[in-house]
Amino acid sequence: MLKKSSLLSLGVMLTISMSACSKSTPAPTASLTNTPANSANEPTSSANVDSNLVAQTVFKQNCVSCHGVDLAGGFGPNLQKVGAHLNQQQIVTTITNGKGGMPAFKEKLKPEEIDALAIWLFSMK
Question: Any coiled-coil ranges, and where (predicted)?
Fold first, then answer.
């Protein structure tokens, strides 16, 4: 028979997992809305902002349950500096086809969503 604390822990984990799979988009958090600093010679365009918002929304809806709200990982690996280790095409390939325990998202995400997510993740250095 499971102890009360084990049942409580299981219930909390299930609640978190279920909420992460929800289709509703939570309010942006500081860690997900931060984008890399632009230099003075590199103005932020509305296309970049739109792409970042798409990427952050896709991340929240599909990735946060494994990679965490702050990209620090958990079930999946830490992505806070993924752009320092993988190039943009490698990130696209991983999202599209999956890798190791990560499922493929080619059937779930549109190519432009995968591209936006890869660009955003590649900027994490």
Answer: none
